[in-house]
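Below sits the subject:
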Amino acid sequence: MHILVATGGAEHSQKAVTFAGLLARDTNAALTLLTVRKPGHSEEAARVALEEAQRALPPNLARVQTRIREGHPAEEIVFECEEGGYDLAVVGERQHHTLRTRFLLGSTAQRVVEHAPCPVVVAKGRIAPVRRLLLCEGLRTDAPLARRFMEQLPELVTLPLEITILHVISQLALTPYDPSVEDSETVQLARRILAGDRQLLSKRHAHVQERLRYGLVVEEIIAEAAWDYDMLVLGAHPGAGWRRILLDDITHDVLVKAPAPVLVVR
């Protein structure tokens, strides 16, 4: 596996570097550190950012290289993903401090997630080796999230993971739980997909569990994520035209609010 991590020296970039370094160590992956120099900015500053990033990596990583590109950060990160044939890209999330912007995903992270040809991790919150995984399953019977995760990142599946497969049955806030919902077609479909995911993942992992929650989808995912998961996994929808994928409101809001790194698979 070959991981690309973008760094610019800021705190959110350091989280991306730390996360990518831990993942490269645990999967024996090759790692490329990329920094993007804006036109007119010093190349020396770019080299310093890369040197700082290298010092933040775990010791004894066998395959580490560095790259400097010039241009717009999001565009150059995506171009590097396309040209380098990477299996995974890792970016940080810039923190927003105003009331107007704190519920928005940083423009660079969002553009990379939308346009990179490979899965992308937005590194944020608590950074730790990936051991507990929350896989947020939808209802795509043609492409269950567990299958896409295993096909796109088979090296991650070799880690000693504890995996919870979650689906949220959408329900209005303050609406009392109705036991009859268990007999609905939606719940039965969700249970079949979760059972299929569990069967697929259990071939590699002893600790796989299914979980259904009821309520507002984003709020329930974040509530479950609060139980010290090391990474959340979300699926993206194919886009049209110049957009490779679409970030729907749920995916965007989970990316913003999640307390841990979020992996978006194609």
Remarks:
- Confidence is low (pLDDT under 50) at residues 96-104.
- The longest helix spans residues 185-202.
- The radius of gyration is 19 Å.
